Amino acid sequence: VSYGSSLPSLSDKIQFPSFLRTVTSDLTSCRAVTQLIIHFRWSWVIILAHDDDFGQQASSLASRELSPAGVCIEDTLHVPSHDSSGKIELIVQKMQKCTARVVLVFLSNANFQIILHSLLGIHPSGQVWVSMDTMHMALALSIPGISQVLHGTFGLLYHSSRAIGFPEFLADLRPSQTPEDMFIKKFWESTFDCTWPHQSGRVREGVQMCSGNESLKNKLYPFQEVSNIDAAYTAVYSIAQALQDVIDRGHQDGKGIDSQHFHSWQLLHAVRNVHFKTPDGIKIMFDANGDVVLKFDIYQGHKTPEGIFNLVPVGMVDPQVYVGKKMMVHLKEDLQVSCLNAEMTFVPSSVCSESCLPGSSQVPRVGAPQCCFDCSRCPKGQFADKKDMKRCLQCPKEQYSSHSRDRCLPRTEIFLAFEEPLGFMLALVALFLSGLAVLVLGVFVKHRDTPVVRANNRTLSYLLLMSLSLCSLCALLFLGRPSVTTCLLRQTTFAVVFTVAISSVLAKTLTVVLAFRATKPGGKIRLWLSPRASTSVVLIASFMQLVLCGVWLAISPPFPDRDMVSEPQHIVIQCQEGSGTLFLCVLGYLGILAGGTFFVAFLARGLPDVFNETKFLTFSTLLFCSVWTAFLPLYHSARGKSTVAVEIFSILASTAGLLGGIFIPKCYIILLKPERNTPAWLRQGHQALRIGSMRCSIEDGSTQPMT
């Protein structure tokens, strides 16, 4: 039963079936110290290992344990077994260039002290040393000024049984009590720095003589072997307990077994199955590999304000208890409190890249380890609610990402409502224009027998005014929350009513043009000047639009839809047009009709007329076409409820253009210039136009009379 050997190969029970030990394997210690790295969330470390089988095996095992936990090794430095100042200096230079603040140590005591000596003169950058053995730090304390290097260091120590009475035994120990002990005098000289009288050889000057009455109480022991007394005590106690079990079992079986006479295999079996508690309450048992089941105490190096550097127990690692895939690491609750009395008040971090806060995700750096990354803010519609997320998560469709991108917020439904300022103003304008058209219609009906009203087919004027009034009112269908009914009516009503209005303007324009070409009484052209012909133009044009709208509603009608894309923070309730092709056909037909009307009016703009009818028709159709030409790019670039506002504005603007361009000048004459609205003034106007036309024809050399 060994109390000092920790070679991993000795755990092989096929090769070493009768070997047991009261210290843990180096592999178990290595695994325990890596759990300390993982617990403190150090993700960027340096491994400093011995250049031998143990160092190679320990560093390889540490890399395998740390890599799945997201810990990256910045560099693995192997210290040579023999003293090579050049290689040691090179290792120290590499450590200076490294950015990791945590150094994981797998070194012998001698090599560790060599490295520490080399670091003393270069003002180290605050590395935290993590060792699988506190003996490194305990021995290093004898180096002057070493506390600045070991400040904040962590180490592990076996949580083994304490040898009861051993400190008292040392305090009362005297060389005269055990004269047969050949080592005690040498131990006494090394401990008290003295020499024995009558010692052979020359006595050094200034060295006091050993009296043998010196006390070992509160004395530091210079020999490493003294530290193994706990493990040795556990080994001896295990043998004693196993021997007692063998004797007790023999008595139970009726076989008297003498403690001096038994077979070795009997004791081996008893030691393997030993399970007891020591007087100080420590459970002792061996696992299947013959290794004692021990916990590790975590020690941290602290320097008090008085300048005293000591090792303070701050927690425990239990290799037998796992939480998930990690060993249980338990730190004392008063760890931070105990640190308040020392210079170190926190556990430093060691990372290649600072943590990405919620709202951002990690973006790996090209050619760098997985621990080195940049932080990228989550795009719109995505979020990251935890630190160091590998990628941002998509918000549900009903939600949007907050400004900080760390959570999703519910999206509110919006539409162009009557209650909001823009909707309210558009509704007022629509009602105003509709009322104005009705008012003009009333004026025309009241003065229906006057020349201004009778000129150019008063029936078409009535029809145009009624359609313009309905055009203004159809804008109200675009306001409010879209429903199945409003979605079916808004575009179709708009298209049909505007077709009636434009076809009425077209009929008026054709009437003016044909009136100046009808030179022969009873000719074919005069047949087109009848009210029935004008009405037929309106009916045919409107019927074609009705057919298109009917096909549209029958095949793929508009329907209410929820737009999740236009506005990230809102859900836009709108009408989806259904068949986009048929919708474009309806608008295209209306556009062709408006373009044809403008073309005819533009050609007739120079024809003489008492009331400037052709000029007003040309101007009004120009306004109409300009508004809807500007509407197309605005409609396709707008998003959300702005598209509805653009369409309503275009409807109202074009309605106002037709109403103002055609009828406001006539109302001006009817209401403010009644003297011009008489047959006498009309005859004078026609005579003046006739003389002017003949004069123009003579100047142009034309002999054809003008109408």
TrEMBL record:
<dbReference type="Pfam" id="PF07562">
    <property type="entry name" value="NCD3G"/>
</dbReference>
<dbReference type="InterPro" id="IPR004073">
    <property type="entry name" value="GPCR_3_vmron_rcpt_2"/>
</dbReference>
<feature type="transmembrane region" description="Helical">
    <location>
        <begin position="616"/>
        <end position="636"/>
    </location>
</feature>
<feature type="domain" description="G-protein coupled receptors family 3 profile">
    <location>
        <begin position="422"/>
        <end position="686"/>
    </location>
</feature>
<keyword id="KW-0472">Membrane</keyword>
<protein>
    <recommendedName>
        <fullName>G-protein coupled receptors family 3 profile domain-containing protein</fullName>
    </recommendedName>
</protein>
<keyword id="KW-0812">Transmembrane</keyword>
<keyword id="KW-0807">Transducer</keyword>
<dbReference type="InterPro" id="IPR011500">
    <property type="entry name" value="GPCR_3_9-Cys_dom"/>
</dbReference>
<dbReference type="InterPro" id="IPR000068">
    <property type="entry name" value="GPCR_3_Ca_sens_rcpt-rel"/>
</dbReference>
<feature type="transmembrane region" description="Helical">
    <location>
        <begin position="422"/>
        <end position="445"/>
    </location>
</feature>
<keyword id="KW-0732">Signal</keyword>
<keyword id="KW-0325">Glycoprotein</keyword>
<dbReference type="InterPro" id="IPR000337">
    <property type="entry name" value="GPCR_3"/>
</dbReference>
<comment type="similarity">
    <text>Belongs to the G-protein coupled receptor 3 family.</text>
</comment>
<feature type="transmembrane region" description="Helical">
    <location>
        <begin position="460"/>
        <end position="480"/>
    </location>
</feature>
<dbReference type="GO" id="GO:0004930">
    <property type="term" value="F:G protein-coupled receptor activity"/>
</dbReference>
<dbReference type="InterPro" id="IPR017978">
    <property type="entry name" value="GPCR_3_C"/>
</dbReference>
<keyword id="KW-1133">Transmembrane helix</keyword>
<dbReference type="InterPro" id="IPR001828">
    <property type="entry name" value="ANF_lig-bd_rcpt"/>
</dbReference>
<dbReference type="InterPro" id="IPR028082">
    <property type="entry name" value="Peripla_BP_I"/>
</dbReference>
<dbReference type="Pfam" id="PF01094">
    <property type="entry name" value="ANF_receptor"/>
</dbReference>
<keyword id="KW-0675">Receptor</keyword>
<dbReference type="GO" id="GO:0005886">
    <property type="term" value="C:plasma membrane"/>
</dbReference>
<keyword id="KW-0297">G-protein coupled receptor</keyword>
<feature type="transmembrane region" description="Helical">
    <location>
        <begin position="492"/>
        <end position="516"/>
    </location>
</feature>
<dbReference type="Pfam" id="PF00003">
    <property type="entry name" value="7tm_3"/>
</dbReference>
<feature type="transmembrane region" description="Helical">
    <location>
        <begin position="648"/>
        <end position="671"/>
    </location>
</feature>
<dbReference type="InterPro" id="IPR038550">
    <property type="entry name" value="GPCR_3_9-Cys_sf"/>
</dbReference>
<dbReference type="InterPro" id="IPR017979">
    <property type="entry name" value="GPCR_3_CS"/>
</dbReference>
<keyword id="KW-1003">Cell membrane</keyword>
<feature type="transmembrane region" description="Helical">
    <location>
        <begin position="581"/>
        <end position="604"/>
    </location>
</feature>
<feature type="transmembrane region" description="Helical">
    <location>
        <begin position="537"/>
        <end position="555"/>
    </location>
</feature>
